[in-house]
Amino acid sequence: MAKKKIMKRSWAEPFKIKVVEPIKMTTREHREKALKVAGYNTFLLKSEDVYIDLLTDSGTNAMSDYQWAGMMLGDEAYAGSKNFYYLWDNVKKYYGMPYFVPTHQGRAAEHIISKILITPGDYVPGNMYFTTTKLHQELAGATFVDVIIDEAHDTENEHPFKGNIDLQKLKDLVKKVGAKKIAYISMAGPVNMAGGQPFSMKNLKAVGKYAKENKIPLWFDATRAVENAYFIKEREKGYGKASIQKILHEMCSYFDGLWVSAKKDLMVNIGGILATKSKKVFQAARNMVVVYEGLHTYGGLAGRDMEAMARGMEEMVDFDTIRARIGQVEYAGKRLEEFGIPFVKPVGGHAIFLDAKKFLSHLKQDLFPAQTLAAEIYADSGVRSMERGIVSAGRNKKTGEHNYPKLELVRLTFPRRVYTQAHIDVTVESIASVYENRKSFKGLRMTYEPKYLRFFQGRFERI
After folding, report:
1. How high is the mean pLDDT of the chain?
2. Fewer CB atoms < 10 Å away: N or C end of the chain?
């Protein structure tokens, strides 16, 4: 008698729903009016007009009952809150950094570290830019230089670690400008603008060794470091049996310092971290945070928020939690493949990135294809995504012309512990519908452009 083939077993999220927030489905007519009022910018839509919100995973995650319980234990003393010291202990434990300064969110830490480490005329090489990071570096007087591997600019390349730094590109820059002109090396993992792509531990070790030999500080945008640790565990030889916490600790050991937007991995609504091994940098940051954020023991945060951050740090390294988080993104990718939708491969950690250049191949880049696609997905279903292309790339400071990035993407970002598989199915089916009608879209023209970070507040109209 032939043995029955054992089918692959399904898995479910490692949590159950305890509290619900009602959302409403709107009509196409309502959404068209809302889009027009918002200037076809999904950032300017009202939340109440959004059905499924995949704009960002920043502060939009669902906190656990353990975190909510901690919110009731907030020590709201102006100085020396007990929640601050609990959080500091966890920064040491999970990131391995002895010195810590809290900030209200990640970009505040970016601002402070750029002010401390950058001298006007310096250079900051990194594995692709991120919008707020690059702006803070430029405002401090530095020039950002992209030294990511070439594979990162190819949406169809299946390289498992497209977030790697190209060591030769880095060496060429140092040879050209001199090591003393490198303020620091900025390494993010996973790389947001590349489609949530991780770097490997092997690459990090090589970059760390080179940085140390040349006395160049190496700093880590550890906002989604747990996702990077997960990919190392899943994809890199020698780490399959290691815990997420152990991999995270090893990753951080090669850096001189890091910053974190706690609104992602830590699954809280607000908060940021600046941590370092350097007592000198710590003292400067602790002094500067008082000027820009608040006293060094609260950094613009309430005690209850620091408590939620500390508890979120304990939860973020749970393997089942991070596997379920990335599993949702992988499921969305598999469903999109069924419809032949072009997106960045392999699937990233926190989001699906649609390839707007291929999706709307009839539109030139200066007609804002990614911005157009994000608007049309919302018009179709009420699903909110965001542009990551020419609008996000801004303008060349010298010529005033648009920067034309190789990647023109629409990001659909999945908040942690918020949506179900059914929400993903609705989203995928909407994208498939838009794909069928893609030839009818004629693009957008920009009607208002702010000076900085124009993707947040820029306004457009349909052509």
Report:
1. 96
2. N
